[in-house]
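pinging the channel bc i need a second pair of eyes. not urgent but kinda urgent?? the chain im working w is below, pasted from the shared doc
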Amino acid sequence: MTLDAIDKKLLFLLQTDSKKTTKELSLKLNLSVTAVYERIKKLEREGIIDKYVVLVNRSKIEKGFVVFCHLKLIQHTKEFLTKFESEVVKLKEVLECHHVSGDYDYILKIVVKDMEAYREFLVTKLTTLQHIGSTHSTFMISEVKSTTVVDI
């Protein structure tokens, strides 16, 4: 699907605030409500709009301690990768898991209450997963930029 300028502006507006009504969007795009509705439905059908979510203020729910954990597996076989990935997706503290190139195999973004909670997570959950060779944890000092808006 080729996106025109209106589609791009519509996606920007929705990424910025997905609670805007079709009427509000129509006024900003200078289109009818029906035209905006149809464009949104088309973007959803084509899979360009993947889902709608709520972003939670982590510090308000005692999950403000952010850790980036670099992880190496003991071997790089398909079996080990598949097993690790199927287990790590079940850990609710892990917000993101990326298979990467370089010195480590994976980078995990983990959120917990504090250092004590991270230690508990590391000892009782993460390091109990099979095939982990080593981990290296980096702790966030402050969040300089965090966005979910993709420039189109």
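so The helical segments are 5-16, 22-29, 33-45, 78-88, 115-124. and The chain has a mean pLDDT of 97. — does that match what u expected or am i reading it wrong
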